[in-house]
Write a structure and sequence with these properties.
By secondary structure, the chain is an alpha/beta fold. The protein has 2 domains: about 15-90, Winged helix-like DNA-binding domain superfamily/Winged helix DNA-binding domain (Arc Repressor Mutant, subunit A); about 120-275, Glucose-6-phosphate isomerase like protein, domain 1 (Rossmann fold, 3-Layer(aba) Sandwich). The protein is built from 12 helices and 5 strands. Strands 2-1-3-4-5 form a 5-stranded parallel beta sheet, with helices on both faces. α6 packs parallel to α11 (about 245-260). The chain starts with 13 loop residues before the first helix and ends in a 5-residue tail after the last helix.
Length: about 290
């Protein structure tokens, strides 16, 4: 995780090591799809054949071979051998676990991968500085990511003086981004989750064209929004159920809140003021 993705560092987990392996390579859309699949199945990849990986990624077997060559290996066997050398085997999920347990275990693995990425706190700290300094702070999230954007905005509004939630698409989205820029915004925070709406990609391109720095929380460093993000922070989603689960992106959003608070001198005072007023109003059942 760094400007665009995670940087170097020892003691990384398998997902972080894969992200670092892919850095610096100009990958085609098909190759980005393979890379995304590998990150999501980081613990299994060193033991998959090229045919199995191709099936998981929904590409052809020759595409997997070309991908390995693009990374500088003689072929996929050399890439897999490298991954086995740098990635110690992790315990597999109990084969008798039911589908619900497997989904939970997959989310636990996603959280472990996020923890690995946060071993280098610099990208999140940088994001916190950018978010704290932007007045107003537009927060974008559409469709599946709308709840993530709402949750962040709800809590951020307690400490940040001007948070503007952008959770509805349509022709007015660019207008609202323009209005935020006219009001003094310097940074836009985006939550982007699959399936990625085309209008989110277009909105980020517009945001950068009008001078905003774009900080994005996405399911992968290879998501379609990556090309339009100045700082991308990846957090994988779970895919074991009928609908994706987003525990890691939600937690990363809370981590960003913490980092932002660290750069808002009045954050603690505002929280204490809110608590006093809430008590006076009997706002919460104790």
């Amino acid at each position: 995780m760094s400007e665009r993705t995670h940087g170097e560092g020892g003691g990384q987990g398998p997902a972080a090591r894969l992200q670092h392996l892919f850095e610096g390579h100009r990958l085609t859309p098909t190759q980005r799809r393979i890379a995304h699949c590998m990150v999501r199945r980081a613990a299994d990849v060193p033991f998959l054949s090229s045919v199995e990986l191709a099936e998981l990624a929904g590409v052809s077997q020759p595409s997997v071979t070309r991908f390995a060559v693009a990374l500088g290996f003689d072929g996929y066997p050399a890439l897999r051998r490298h991954l086995r050398e740098v990635s110690p085997a992790e315990p597999a999920v109990d084969a008798v676990a039911n589908e619900y347990q497997k989904a939970v275990e997959a989310e636990i693995a996603n959280l472990r991968h996020l923890s690995d990425l946060l071993a280098d706190p610099a990208p999140v700290e940088r994001a916190g500085q950018l978010l704290a300094a932007s007045r107003p702070l537009p927060v974008l999230g559409l469709r599946a990511a709308a709840s993530q954007a709402y949750g962040f905005s709800y809590f951020a509004a307690k400490v940040h003086p001007d948070v503007r939630l952008l959770d509805e698409g349509g022709t007015m989205l660019a207008d609202r981004i323009d209005a935020a820029v006219r009001a003094g915004a310097t940074t836009l925070l985006c939550f982007a989750l699959p399936r990625h709406p085309r209008e989110v990609v277009e909105a980020l391109a517009h945001a950068r064209s009008v001078g905003l720095t774009v900080v994005t929380v996405a399911d992968s460093a290879f998501a379609p929004v990556a090309a339009h993000s100045d700082l991308l922070l990846p957090a994988a989603v779970g895919t074991g159920l009928a609908f994706d689960t987003a525990c890691a992106p939600m937690l990363l959003g809370r981590v960003l809140l913490e980092a932002m608070c660290d750069d808002l001198p009045q954050a603690q005072a505002r929280l204490e003021e809110f608590d006093v007023r809430a008590a006076e109003r009997g706002l919460f059942a104790e």
